[in-house]
Amino acid sequence: DGTVFFVPVMADLLASHGSLSAALITAMLTIFYLTSSGAGILVGRLADKGGGRGAKIAIGILSLGVGMLLFALAIAWTHGAARGALALVAALVAGVGSSFYHPLGASLISDAFDPSNRARALGANGAMGSLGRALYPTLFFVVTGLVASQASAVVVFGVVAAGAAALLWTLRVDPRPPRAEHAATATERATAGPWLDRNIVILTVVSFVRSVAFTGMVAWLPVYFTHERGLGLSSQLGLVITLLYAGGVLGQPLFGLFADKLDKRMVLAVSTLGAAGAVVAYVHNGGALGLALLGIFGVFNFSGFPLLMSLVADYVPKGTSSTANAFVWGLGSTGGQAIGPLLVGLLALSSYSHLASSFEILALAAIAVTALLPLMARTGRHTRPPLFG
Fold first, then answer.
1. Is 381 strand, coil or helix?
2. Residue 198, Cβ neighbours under 10 Å: how many?
3. Between the CA of residue 330 and those of 33, 42, 154, 336, what are the distances in Å?
4. How far from the centroid of its chain's Cα atoms is residue 59's Cα?
5. Whether 74 contacts 87, CB under 8 Å
6. In a domain, 43, yes or no
7. What is the DSSP letter of 233?
8. Packing angle, helices 22-50 and 80-98, rounded to 10
9. Who contacts 316 (Cβ-Cβ below 8 Å, separation ≥6)?
10. What's the chain's Rg over C-alpha atoms?
């Protein structure tokens, strides 16, 4: 997660130090997010048919590492058209790599835990992702200071990603196909695929609208902080952004706990409504109250992973869970990430003073989409042993 959220930093470096045009930067980010969204479905299908999800995750992390190394080459050793072309290739490789983990990791965790504690396990895993998102931008500048070069810092992160991939490959998580653990029923064999399941379709729509709204806000909040709240490019800005992302470290395990005990549809609705309400309240308040509301927004907003993925696990059999995860997270969440920032820019009408009203419009869209949640089937509540004993 830290590496994935590091890609916009690469865009900033290539724009400010690499002199790439706005059109090329837009193309680079679009390629990254669209590839990440679309490739996940193919990855999920391959994992459902052939197993080896841990090895495939290792391949994905390695691809992310290679993408970071290509970005470093583009920044430090190329110029002109060659730099732009290499940046696009790096975005493509990193986008493919980023499509592996969420559908396959969620599938592995969902299969490993009982329904009674599955969401908590997903929440604990997601909290580590939130920690990576919160720390990686700061770590980048620390490493840059140590190695005296931003390109060298990118190389360091690429090597770290490759090392993580090698470790995961060595551990050989899930070496057998998941179907070996699950005897499909006649009903499951008759199901053509998760994309035909009404619950998965609705959940994908909810995930998409939620991601468009909240990712669009998160992408533009630093600009809003600088131009409308007067923070400027300072350490204070960095602390505020860290506060925003750190909310997921608390929010994901907390909402995972709620999801294991309550109706998951209701918990997802509360997280969506809470995030929308917090951001609307934030744009009308400042000072300590504003900071508190921003932290609350982070807690609610970054809770989606355990809620969405545990619902998928409840609706589909193990043999199609990776593909279903790719639809809900890939097409839904990651697809929304590609569109959200662009939509905020269009709503703002090229004026930073309109950002607050753009946030409010997207918050209303997020509130409206929760009306679809009661149309999904209710999942059962369980009374199995707790997660850690």
1. coil
2. 11
3. 9, 10, 26, 9
4. 18
5. yes
6. yes
7. S
8. 30
9. 194, 197, 200, 324
10. 20
Residue whose C-alpha is closest to residue 101's, from 121, 125, 119, 117: 125
Beta-carbon contacts of 182 under 8 Å, excluding residues fewer than 6 positions away, are 317, 318, 319
110 with 321: CB under 8 angstroms? yes
- Number of alpha helices (DSSP H) and beta strands (DSSP E) in the chain: 16, 0
Q: First-to-last CA distance in the chain?
A: 28
Which tokens sit at 157? Answer: 């992160």
- Residue 170: count of CB within 10 angstroms of its CB: 9
Q: How many domains does the chain have?
A: 1
Residue 27 included in any domain: yes
Residues in the chain: 389
List the CATH number of the domain containing 200. 1.20.1250.20
Task: At 355, list the tokens.
Answer: 């950002």
Q: Backbone phi, then psi, for 197, in 5-degree steps? A: -80, 125
Residue that is written with structure tokens 């058209």 in the block:
81
CA atoms within 13 A on the CB side of 292: 4
Query: Does a structural domain hold residue 385?
Result: no
Residues 326 and 275 sit within 8 Å (Cβ to Cβ): no
List, for residues 155-213, the tens digit of each pLDDT value: 565 666 666 656 555 555 554 444 444 444 434 444 445 556 889 999 999 999 999 99
Q: Which helix (H) or strand (E) holds 262?
A: none
Q: What is the pLDDT of residues 287-346, one digit of tens each?
A: 889 889 999 999 999 888 889 988 988 888 766 677 788 888 878 888 888 888 888 888
Which domain range does residue 349 map to? Answer: 4-178+191-375
Residue 183 domain-assigned? no
Q: Give dist(CA 36, CA 39) in Å, integer.
A: 6
pTM (predicted TM-score):
0.73
| Distance of alpha carbon 83 from alpha carbon 98, whole angstroms | 22
Query: Which amino acid would we find at residue 3?
Result: T
Residue 280 and residue 154 in contact, taking contact as beta carbons nearer than 8 Å: no
